[in-house]
Amino acid sequence: MEFREDLIDLLRVAGSVVVVTGSGVSAESGVPTFRGEDGLWRRYRAEDLATPQAFSSDPALVWEWYDWRRGIVAKAKPNPAHEVIADMERYYPDFLLVTQNVDGLHRKAGNERMVEIHGNIWRVRCVAELDERFLYDNPLEVIPPKCECGSLLRPAVVWFGESLPFEGLTTASEGIQNCEVFLTVGTSGVVYPVASFPMLAKSSGASVVDINKDATPITSIADHTLMGKAGEILPELWRAIKG
Ligand code: OAD
What we know:
This protein has 11 helices and 9 strands. The chain has 243 residues and is α/β, with parallel strands linked by helices.
């Protein structure tokens, strides 16, 4: 792929970069996306599996679905797109990754300055005591799993109708309002509040770069759109930048 010179210059000299990722960045690692042809929301109803109401009415069903997804994630490895985003953290003096993904693959690739804004599929929260911890058993021995206090454990992820963690959202908003380059990778850009981030970046003066297989609402406001697979485009782009 040919890259515009102004894009290469922009990314080569930028001091502060925020990267926002969605499930498309993990697609080439074998983790299903939510929308699109093979998306999870084509086969399952979010209302039955990813809402607090669904968990109250059938915690075992919700946990079976999460246990199945944890099994997929357990086998997945970071792909070249994750590797480049990890290298970006080492390259840019001021860097922040905001991911909507709960699969933990960015951390496996080496990112540390990151906000997992929708939580992490390996973390659980006691519904009574509200404390969180990692639970790596897969498959789970008992479904639904319980806390030592006897109450249910739930996945520590953000479900539809729930607020995003205040601290993560503040870190993300501050980073976005102060960055020179805002790069989105593999997100449909339709789930709020993350869907509002590209506009926030643009109105704060950042250049918006979007990498996606298909056109999305971000395409219309992006200064640069690179269409194709993240695992192919990002390594090529990174080679061009680092010379
Ligand atoms: P989506 O499934 O909505 O969008 C995935 C995007 O990735 C689409 O725009 C695809 O075109 C693109 N894509 C797929 N494969 C790609 C590849 N190899 N390279 C580049 N792009 C690719 O996933 P998200 O945007 O992450 O929230 O969805 C946002 C939120 O909706 C998720 O965090 C989840 C979901 O419901 C909750 O569960 C709260």
